[in-house]
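Annex B. Sample input.
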Amino acid sequence: MPDTLELSEHPNVDEMVMIVGWRQWADAGSVSSALPQYLVQQTKARQIGTMRPDGFYLFQIPGTHDLVRPAVEFEEGYPKALQMQHNELYYTESGGRGVVIFLGDEPHMDIERYIGAVLDTAESLHVTRIIGLGGVYGELPYAKERMISANYSLPALKDEVEALAVELSNYQGGASIGSVICRRAGDRDIEYVGLYAFVPTYDFSGVSDVGNAIRIENDYTAWLGIMRRINYMLKTNFSLADLERKSRRLLTVMDEKIADLERTSPQLDLSAYFDRLNEEFVEKTFDPLDDVWEDEIRRIFDEPESPDET
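Annex B, continued. Sample output.
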């Protein structure tokens, strides 16, 4: 185990899985940063490790003022708080499995050493599968289930991932940390699946008196869609009741915000705008209960008849 990442304990369980997220570029709807933190809080996960920040982060970029600098808070001259980049591992259990939750800050430099430390840790904990989280903004209906894009580290995972009602990624361009770790996990023969939720955003900045874009900062509907797939893939049983309530409340808030915008800016013709979005959007509903019922029906018909039934 490299000194970069220090573990305070190695939980002893029959099977270990891992969920990873970052405060990063691909973090629309706070899917990658706030969802892991939410899981930590909801499950009362305990911290079991931390990564030293040495060599991964810039202090400043000339001409950008405070783009990458740590945040400090003074009170009457005393440095009351200093917020540096941090990377931490937490541990909880769900569905009889150990779950490691990694939440960190996407590094500025030395990405190979950073990812190597994360994967070394996964191997030392005997993690069988890693799920990475990400979010991307898009012009999509807010009242529909979120579209989920996915990537995977090993060809053998393709059919399983495709069955999750996702779009397999054909992205080409600048890589996020999730893209890099997906490839490096495959190089080590580690199972990694990246799930990216598409989060609604609407840009009305070109219309006077309207303002800038409307976007969902904490997209609980996206979080819910991701967690349904995680529970299914990892065979965990994280409670989703709170996220379901939050998702319904988010829909109500968005309805109110759009209705208010319709009243104040009728020139936008939002009814026609959202009608068009709904018509063009192909909703993929993930319903694992279909598989459960199919398996149960198959089991019933495959069982031999008892003597009383003949």
